[in-house]
Amino acid sequence: MTNPSRSVRDDFSISALVAGFLAVLISYAGPLVIVFQAARLAHLSEAQTSSWIWAISIGSGLTGLVLSWRLKTPVITAWSTPGAALLVTMLPTMPLGQAIGAYIASSVAITLIGLSGAFDRFIARIPKGIAAAMLAGILLRFGTEVFTSVKANPALVLLMVLTFLVVKRTLPRYAIAGVLVIGTAFAVTTGVTNLSQLQLAVVQPVWTTPEWSWHAVLSLGVPLALVTLTGQYVPGMAVLRTSGYQVPASGIIATTGLASLLLAPFGAHGVNLAAITAAICTGKEAHEEADRRYVAGVVGGAIYVVVGTFGGALALLFSALPHELIAALAGLALIGAITTGLIGTVQDESHRDASIVTFLVTASGMSFLGLGAAFWGLVIGGAAYLILHKPWKRAAPQLATLKKA
Questions:
Q1: Residue 199 predicted with pLDDT over 80
Q2: For the whole prediction, is pTM greater than 0.90?
């Protein structure tokens, strides 16, 4: 248990600082590209795009910082990546005001689900092996991308892998910090970064008055809530539970849902629990002691706020780093989380087949009916669990015994 009288300063560590920074770096260098793409296709102005980045950054920063500090748990929040992908096709088809109205409807629905406690009851029914398998399946491609990136930039990636192994052997807590420093220094000195477009300026948020449209709510709002719950909150809670943090989902969902609601008029399509970047901050790479890893969430939240203040400028700074650098950083930082997921997948022998099915479906990257692999991994793996184990038959005698008692 964490001593509530201890402060962030007492629990601060370099490894937690690096983990929080990496979580932010990977968010901006990867999923933000989807936001830029959606904004370009919808013909948003530079001011509207910067406001959108400001809103999701500030929302992610404040919710992650406050939740991590209050719960003493590394709660990493971010914007909805599957939601942004949905906007690539949907945002160009409607006025921005109607899209904002749909964002608000989605946020209200997610907030009410969080406050009701229904999501907590759903998560509690997922077998641990299936939750661990879903986590391992989500993260697997990040581990393999370390080595598929070798072809594009062998010197950079192999240097980073070698740095990781050497520092892991000598100073394991600082392995990822060493990889970050060496990789970035090599990228800068070899001229593979692109900083020519960087201009530092404070963002002026742009208010867009919401417009109500049943068409926008049904075609964008409802799918946005669905993909955010299944694609972000389910795997995000799986990351926390697999890492041993038994925090209730209701408060996290309600807090991020409310933040999404307040920031929607400034362009935020949704702030939610992160999954992939969260795995960087919940493992031993952040700190050997689990009750001190929350500092990574506090640090990550603070960095989000700083980046959000300067909007597109610092986002461009992060995206200027080469893809191979980001891929190698992410994959090496997630090795511990992938290991935890794989161990959890095979640990419970009685559920092993269903867990492996979950892992394979999730790792496949499949998409069907507009829903991603994490959702279908949970559905198909859950169906396999029900068919193979028939848990309702075991529950019937237990209920009968309770009634007699």
A1: no
A2: no
